[in-house]
Specification:
Length: 128
């Protein structure tokens, strides 16, 4: 995913606020899952979906106003109840890695708010 830093993403320290990096990873995950065939709207009709269990972010450099950043994401592994997704956020202009992120997602039955086993039909949509 390619993103240009907007003025409202800049914090009082004059760089991108740390929560924006997290938002970018969520956008990239959604776009990647959709590209793999995941239909979030259909899943919601069935009261199923992915929920974040944990995020781990290591910030390495700051993004600034008007920077263009690239968020790369991939599914690192899929287990019975969880999937681990990794991300690298970089600034192509100078080839700087801004952050490395890992998110653990669980598959949830939203009607009872419980983690359930990831169906094979869902796991098969995500290339590891």
């Amino acid at each position: 995913m390619i993103h240009k830093v907007a003025d409202d993403e800049i914090d009082a320290q004059e760089h991108v606020h740390n929560l924006r990096y997290l938002q970018w990873t969520l956008w990239a995950a959604g776009a990647h899952s959709a590209a793999c065939g995941w239909d979030a709207a259909e899943a919601l009709k069935q009261k199923k979906g992915w929920v974040v269990r944990s995020h781990d972010i290591t910030y390495r450099a700051a993004a600034m106003a008007d920077d263009e950043v690239t968020v790369r994401t991939w599914v690192a592994d899929i287990a019975k109840f969880a999937s681990r997704r990794k991300y690298v956020i970089c600034r192509p202009a100078d080839q700087t890695v801004l952050a490395r992120v890992e998110t653990r997602w669980v598959y949830v039955d939203l009607s009872v708010h419980k983690v359930v086993a990831i169906p094979n039909s869902v796991a098969s949509q995500l290339e590891v």
